[in-house]
Amino acid sequence: MLAATLPDLADRAPLGEDVARHLASEIIRLRPPPGAKLVETELCDRHGVSRSPMREALRLLEFWSLAKRRPRYGVFVAPMSVQNLDDLTTCRIPLEARAAALVAEHPSHPQVAERLLSRLVAMAEAQETGDVEACFTANLAMMDSLHGANPNPVLARLLGEVNLSARRYRYLVYQHSPETLTMLLESNAALIAAIRSGDGDRAHAVTEEMVRNAWQSLRVRLPEYLRLSPDGSQAT
Q1: Is residue 12 pLDDT above 90, yes or no?
Q2: Separation between Cα atoms, residue 28 and residue 226, nearest integer Å
Q3: What CATH architecture is 82-226?
Q4: What range(s) does the HTH gntR-type domain occupy (predicted)?
Q5: Whole-structure pTM value
Q6: Beta strand pairing call for 74-77 and 67-70
Q7: Cβ neighbours for 204, distance < 8 A, ≥ 6 positions apart
Q8: Mean pLDDT, all residues of the chain
Q9: 114 SS3 class
Q10: Cβ(135)–Cβ(181) under 8 Å?
Q11: What is the DSSP letter of 4?
């Protein structure tokens, strides 16, 4: 799922990139958490690879803004903050809104709407059963479908880069804010309706409002959420 949206760098070592994608999926789910040290030898043992591909994987994580290297100290999971959330979201809003409008205005919009609806149904079913991981995964699949249907390749690349870091913040919403998740389900239903009808202006407006509302809701409680472990208990 995640592999479909990570930047595709053909000149990278395949094994290193494969390890990087796996690590990125874990980091997005806050395991390991922000600020944790990524110890090369431990990661090599856990993934059964030598140091060369692991170093390539760590360089890719840095390139994707999921890790930061501190000279003489090593590589650490990139921190999360209100400022970083603000920076990412102010970029995401116009990109996401434009992509949604282009998809709605494209001749394939009825077929895209059906694919998106199947993902939304999976999200709703997972929410009803309390399966947060499945709900988050279904949302990633829905966004992958939407971004993949966007006919502008430059926009698709920019969205892929910005959304990778933003997914860590979205994961917090799924873990700790059921009321925001309900809003997202309703807003995505409205977005799909706009795409099905071919209404680019409506798709743009719904997307812009949805991302903005989720952002404002999250930024107020972000410091609290970051003090919690992924299962909702108080972090040590």
Answers
A1: no
A2: 13
A3: Up-down Bundle (1.20)
A4: 13-80
A5: 0.85
A6: antiparallel
A7: 97, 98, 100, 101
A8: 90
A9: helix
A10: yes
A11: G
Determine the straight-line distance between the first and last CA of the chain, rounded to whole angstroms.
Answer: 31
Domain ranges in the chain are: 2-77, 82-226
Query: How does pLDDT run across 110-125, given as a tens digit for each residue?
Result: 999 999 999 999 999 9
75 beta partners: 69
| φ and ψ at residue 228, rounded to 5 degrees | -100, 150
The encoded tokens of residue 147 equal: 């971004």
Say how many C-beta atoms besides its own lie within 10 A of residue 64's C-beta.
Answer: 21
Q: What angle do CA 194, 198, 200 make, to 5 degrees?
A: 70
Smallest CA-to-CA distance from 28 within 57, 63, 66, 64 is with 66
Whole-angstrom distance, CA of residue 8 vs CA of residue 120: 26
Q: Tens of pLDDT along 196-233?
A: 999 999 999 999 999 999 999 999 999 998 886 554 44
